[in-house]
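Checklist before submission:
- one chain only
- standard amino acids only
- sequence pasted in full

Submission:
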Amino acid sequence: APVAAGCEAQYQNKHPDYSAILAKVSSSPRMRRAVDALMRGPVNRRDLDAVIGTTNAPSYVSGLKKLGLCIDCETLKGQDRYGQSCRYGRYHLSQAHRDGLRHALVMQGDK
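Returned file contents:
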């Protein structure tokens, strides 16, 4: 299911300083792992928890949003470990912000 355009529309005229964002997240290995995972594409909350190495991925996503990144959360239906219906989130970093972060990484000589 496509993600609502809310985040893209909200940040339409905003161009964050991607180099500054990368500098801030580089001081936290967990934040950097979260950014790296989101740059690869949509990621489920549980998978992001595993990548970050914690069980509070929403807190890290919130922190990245406060830095200016456009991250939407899609709610999906699934089953928990007991076979009960549940909902879970899948995070999406906007394509524009993925591109901006990739460009900043290239300019820094990283990836």
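Reviewer check: The chain has a mean pLDDT of 89.
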